[in-house]
Each structure stands twice: as structure tokens, then as C-alpha cells.
UniProtKB/TrEMBL annotation:
<dbReference type="InterPro" id="IPR040176">
    <property type="entry name" value="RNF121/RNF175"/>
</dbReference>
<feature type="region of interest" description="Disordered">
    <location>
        <begin position="1"/>
        <end position="20"/>
    </location>
</feature>
<dbReference type="Pfam" id="PF00097">
    <property type="entry name" value="zf-C3HC4"/>
</dbReference>
<feature type="transmembrane region" description="Helical">
    <location>
        <begin position="137"/>
        <end position="164"/>
    </location>
</feature>
<keyword id="KW-0812">Transmembrane</keyword>
<feature type="transmembrane region" description="Helical">
    <location>
        <begin position="75"/>
        <end position="91"/>
    </location>
</feature>
<dbReference type="InterPro" id="IPR001841">
    <property type="entry name" value="Znf_RING"/>
</dbReference>
<protein>
    <submittedName>
        <fullName>RING finger protein 175 isoform X2</fullName>
    </submittedName>
</protein>
<keyword id="KW-0472">Membrane</keyword>
<keyword id="KW-0863">Zinc-finger</keyword>
<keyword id="KW-0862">Zinc</keyword>
<feature type="transmembrane region" description="Helical">
    <location>
        <begin position="97"/>
        <end position="116"/>
    </location>
</feature>
<feature type="domain" description="RING-type">
    <location>
        <begin position="233"/>
        <end position="283"/>
    </location>
</feature>
<feature type="transmembrane region" description="Helical">
    <location>
        <begin position="46"/>
        <end position="68"/>
    </location>
</feature>
<keyword id="KW-0479">Metal-binding</keyword>
<dbReference type="InterPro" id="IPR013083">
    <property type="entry name" value="Znf_RING/FYVE/PHD"/>
</dbReference>
<dbReference type="InterPro" id="IPR018957">
    <property type="entry name" value="Znf_C3HC4_RING-type"/>
</dbReference>
């Protein structure tokens, strides 16, 4: 009898293993939730203590970060940008998100080159144009990803995915990922553009530029040394091909209030990215309101609030959670 019972006892685990392999993804998830509930049953007081620790850590972290930003804004922005850059890299490698990692790597390489060009002294006359074009492209792509992601989420919540026989989970995942891509790279592009702007503004202000840049048209005393041709851009020194009243394929020709004409990307890079409010040639004051036409160039209140929230979520929330985990571990809470 004992010999006969042994095979039966050995067969039970095999039957259980086979049944688990036949479970669907939803059933497997429900089974995991049930096991988690049984594991934490009777630990309500411990859970309340852990929630209080988490809330206190959030409040303290928020106060510290606000004070840091108000007192030492430059160091806060640099550390936050570094966190924004490094924290997603850790999670993408840990969770095998190779698609995000490839996009992150491509963005990092190109942006590093742009940052290298913007911090060189003497500054090339083509750099403001290059900086403006790259970060304007990042803004447009991030805006498109954000809009598509938001519409996909609304599309799923309204049930329209059923008409196209798309699973709700797939449609929602696509919307959330696209929205995150748009907001994340929008924040990164805007912050790196601000760093490039500061470096370029200080360089241009010290008159240490090289190449066909505006300082070459004037001597050290401010007297003009040579005239500006009507078909030459004073920022990059290249010929202007598109007429003023002509629609360009890539960019248009822009005329300031002083009647001097430039490549649109050049003068926008000079005035907006380089933070110069005068004409590159005649030094007349430029009306920046005519040139500012998107949230990357002028931060709206709501857009700025969203970006600040995302910075905190990506850069500092993992740090706060790590601190809370350390406190819970030291107190023996699980």
C-alpha cells in the first residue's frame, strides 16, 4: 500500500504544475493578487505605519527640494537634470526596455554634441542656428508624441478601441508610453536648451565669437568696419536664398523691425537661444514677442507646472521611495 501511495503523492505536484501552465495572463495576475492578500493579512497596523512614514517622507522631501531650488537654483537644476538623465537608464536596463534605451542613447549622443558646440570658446557663428534647429525638432516631436499618447488614452477610456478590435491593455499601454515619451523628452530638451542658452549668452556677451558672426562687423569701439550685404545673413555668414515674401521649404527669411534680414533659424537662435535682444548688425532692440510662438520658447503656467511635476516624478520620486524603503527596513517593516 505504501508503495502504491507513493506515486499518487508524487503525482499531485505535477498536476498542480500543469494546471498553472494553462492559466491565462489575467488568471495568473489574479492568483498573484490573492497570494499577496494572504501574505499581508493581519498586518494592518504595520501597513498604516508604513503609509505614515511614506507621507512624512514626501512632505519633508518637498520642503527640502523647494528650499534648495529657491536658495541654490543652479545646482538644483543641474542635479535634477542629471537625475532625469540617469534614473530612466537604470530602470530601462533593469527591466529590459531596449526600445526606450535606444532612443535615449540616440538623444544623448546628439544632445551631447550640441552641448559641446554651445560651450566652445570662441563660439562659431553657426552654433545658434544649430542649437535652435535641434531643440525645436525635439519640441515638435515630443509635442506630437504627447498629443498622440493623450488621444490614445482618451480613445481607450471611451471604448473606441473595440471598433478596431484592439485590446484595451494594448491601447492603454501605447497611450501611456507615447505620453511619457513626449513629456520626458520635452522636459529634457527644454532643460538642455536652457543650459546651451546660458553658455551661449555668456559667450556672446563677452564678444569672443569666431567665424562670420556679428562682432566682425564692428570694431572694439563700436564703429562699423564693413557693410552687410543684402543677401548675407549676419549670424551665420551664409547667403540668403529664400526671398522675404517667399515661402521656404525648410525655413523662411526673417526681417527685423530695423529692416535687416536673416535666416529664420539663425535669428531665432540668436535672439531666443542666445538670449540676445538686439539686431546682430545694427544693435537695434528686437521685439521678442513677434518671435516667440511655442511653449518651448515661452513657458506657459500650466505647461510649466506639468514639466515641474514630471521632473519630480522621474528624478526625485525614486529617491524618496528608496529612502522610505531604507527606513522601513531599518525598523523591521515589510
Amino acid at each position: 500500500m505504501a508503495a502504491r501511495a507513493a506515486p499518487g503523492l508524487e503525482g499531485a505536484p505535477q498536476h498542480e504544475q500543469i494546471s498553472h501552465t494553462k492559466l491565462s495572463a489575467d488568471d495568473e495576475w489574479n492568483l498573484q493578487q490573492e497570494r499577496m492578500y494572504k501574505m499581508h493579512r493581519g498586518h494592518e497596523s504595520m501597513h498604516v505605519e508604513m503609509v505614515l512614514i511614506f507621507l512624512c517622507a514626501l512632505v519633508v522631501a518637498q520642503i527640502v527640494l523647494v528650499q534648495w531650488r529657491q536658495r541654490h537654483g543652479r545646482s538644483y537644476n543641474l542635479v535634477t537634470l542629471l537625475q532625469m538623465w540617469v534614473v530612466p537608464l537604470y530602470f530601462t536596463i533593469k527591466l529590459y526596455w531596449w526600445r526606450f534605451l535606444s532612443m535615449w542613447g540616440m538623444f544623448s549622443v546628439i544632445t551631447s554634441y550640441i552641448l559641446f558646440r554651445a560651450t566652445r570658446k570662441p563660439l562659431s557663428g553657426r552654433t545658434p542656428r544649430l542649437v535652435y534647429k535641434w531643440f525645436l525638432l525635439i519640441y515638435k516631436l515630443s509635442y506630437a508624441f504627447g498629443v498622440v499618447g493623450y488621444l490614445a488614452i482618451i480613445f481607450t477610456m471611451c471604448g473606441f478601441h473595440l471598433f478596431f478590435r484592439i485590446k484595451a491593455r494594448d491601447s492603454m499601454d501605447f497611450g501611456i508610453v507615447s505620453l511619457f515619451y513626449g513629456l520626458y523628452y520635452g522636459v529634457m530638451g527644454r532643460d538642455f536648451a536652457e543650459i546651451c542658452s546660458d553658455y551661449m549668452a555668456s559667450t556672446l556677451g563677452n564678444d569672443v565669437c569666431s567665424g562670420p558672426v556679428p562682432q566682425q562687423f564692428y570694431s572694439g569701439s563700436g564703429m562699423p568696419t564693413r557693410s552687410l550685404s543684402d543677401d548675407i545673413c549676419a549670424v551665420c555668414g551664409q547667403k540668403i536664398i529664400v526671398e522675404l515674401d517667399e515661402e521656404g521649404l525648410i525655413e523662411n527669411t526673417y526681417q527685423l523691425s530695423c529692416k535687416h534680414v536673416f535666416h529664420e533659424f539663425c535669428i531665432r537662435g540668436w535672439c531666443i537661444v542666445g538670449k540676445k535682444q538686439t539686431c546682430p548688425y545694427c544693435k537695434e532692440k528686437v521685439d521678442l514677442k513677434r518671435m516667440i510662438n511655442n511653449p518651448w520658447e515661452r513657458t506657459h503656467f500650466l505647461y510649466g507646472q506639468i514639466l515641474d511635476w514630471l521632473r519630480y516624478l522621474v528624478a526625485w520620486q525614486p529617491v524618496v521611495i528608496g529612502i522610505v524603503q531604507g527606513i522601513n527596513y531599518s525598523l523591521g517593516l515589510e
